[in-house]
Design goal:
This protein has 405 residues and is an alpha+beta fold. It is built from 15 helices and eleven strands. The strands form two sheets. It has a six-stranded mixed sheet with strand order 1-2-6-3-5-4, with helices on both faces. It has a five-stranded mixed sheet with strand order 7-11-8-10-9, sandwiched between helices. The chain is globular and about 60 Å long.
Length: 405
């Protein structure tokens, strides 16, 4: 049976989306809040991610233990994540537990923000920041994006800094919540085997009283810059580098061409980067990605190698980016097969469809069926990639290195 897409808007602005597929044996549900690091002020840096943690720490009617206990009773696979642009709370459940999961998840979206829990969880966040700062790959990406985007909010840090999170107060978090968690800035989505009518009725009952208010976001384009920066750290065995150029935004149709191009140039197997760097033993890691964001985007390459070989590795990577159309029709068809396989494998389960449904609506206010996404990928020709490169040439490159001190 073919999946059916359905949509409903509550009077307070909350968008309800569903993709009902009775042939599935499970269901997935999630709140997609259009807020993240790029919506924070400098003194709030890290508050979106911190707030995500606090959603699991209790409400007016449930303690953190109650939430954890009920998730176990429901057998739910529940979690959350925060990115630069979205905060998502989700769960996968059996159909008979769907309504109970919806009630629990909705209650969690109105957290108590208990001062004691806030103080305790802050320590957890600070430990997480320290853990990630110890990872060279993460450290370089944080530094590079902050410098590359400059004053543009796309470069804001998801975790924040030790200083910014340490200084955050419970009151600041509450003000941020009140500013960003409007129902009109959210999507409640569900996929798989569930009752659409019950889903909407419960959403009306559970969320219909939430107060609506206007929420905005600056989505100005960013045209990149050309710069070379080198950072150093002690006790590094490898050197790392990122090359960044302007790319397509999440709203640009050219995202299909650049996604395929990134696969041709820098997929983990069988790409130009792979054969030129990994296969020859010059680099232990080499990849190319199209990073599409709200109103902005970038096209980037990442490499890591021994410090002695990094100059050579960067030179080869730059050479590949400078000749992006140096590939055959067979190369493009292999890239299409890889991309389509990933799309289909991700979309076979309700959880994969949930993520596609909620995030696409947040970015483009549309629902593209899986079959249509596949058709669009198949339709991309080399001449389309060539036209895309006229709009997003890979000639203005910023280079960031991380070397042993």
């Amino acid at each position: 049976m073919k999946a059916q897409f359905l949509k409903h808007n509550l009077a307070n602005g909350l968008t309800i989306l569903g993709e009902v597929n009775p042939s599935n044996v499970s269901a997935a549900i999630g709140f997609f809040v259009k807020t993240g690091a790029r919506d924070e002020t400098e003194i709030e840096s890290g508050v979106s991610h911190f707030l995500e943690h606090m959603m699991f720490k209790g409400t007016k009617t449930r303690s953190a233990m109650d939430i954890n206990f009920q998730l176990g009773n429901l057998g739910a696979q529940a979690n959350a994540f925060t990115s630069e642009e979205n905060t998502v709370y989700y769960a996968g459940v059996l159909p008979e537990h769907f309504s109970a999961m919806q009630e629990l998840l909705t209650d969690m979206l109105r957290p108590a923000l208990d001062p004691d829990d806030f103080a305790t969880e802050k320590k957890v966040i600070l430990e997480e920041i320290a853990l990630y700062q110890d990872r060279p790959h993460f450290y370089l990406f944080e530094k590079a994006f902050k410098d590359y985007f400059g004053d543009h909010p796309a470069g804001n840090s998801v975790l924040g800094s030790h200083a910014s999170v340490s200084a955050l107060t419970r009151e600041q978090m509450k003000l941020y919540f009140d500013r960003r968690y409007s129902p009109s800035n959210m999507v409640l989505a569900a996929t798989g085997n569930f009752s659409w009518d019950r889903f909407v009725a419960d959403a009306e009952s559970l969320c219909g009283h939430w107060e609506n208010y206007a929420v905005g976001r600056a989505t100005s384009r960013y045209h990149g810059k050309v710069v070379q920066e080198c950072y150093t750290r002690k006790n590094l065995s490898h050197a790392h580098a990122i090359l960044i150029a302007p790319g397509a935004a999440a709203q640009d149709f050219e995202r299909y061409s650049l996604s395929l191009l990134s696969t041709v140039l820098g997929d983990s197997s069988g790409s130009r980067m792979y054969w030129s760097l990994i296969h020859k033993g010059l680099a232990d890691s080499a990849s190319v990605d199209s990073d599409e964001r709200d109103g902005a985007g970038c096209f980037l390459a990442y490499v890591s190698s021994t410090p002695e070989q990094l100059d050579q590795v960067i030179g080869i990577a730059r050479g590949i980016l400078s000749t992006p159309l140096d590939f055959s029709e067979d190369d493009l068809e292999r890239a299409k097969a890889k991309v389509i396989s990933r799309i289909v494998l991700d979309g076979e389960l309700p959880m994969g469809r949930l993520m596609a449904l909620g995030l696409e609506w947040n970015y483009r206010r549309e629902n593209t069926p899986l079959s249509e996404v596949i058709s669009r990928v198949k339709a991309v020709q080399k001449r389309d990639i060539e036209r895309t490169l006229e709009k997003f040439p890979l000639s203005s490159i910023a280079e960031y290195r991380l070397m042993p001190e």
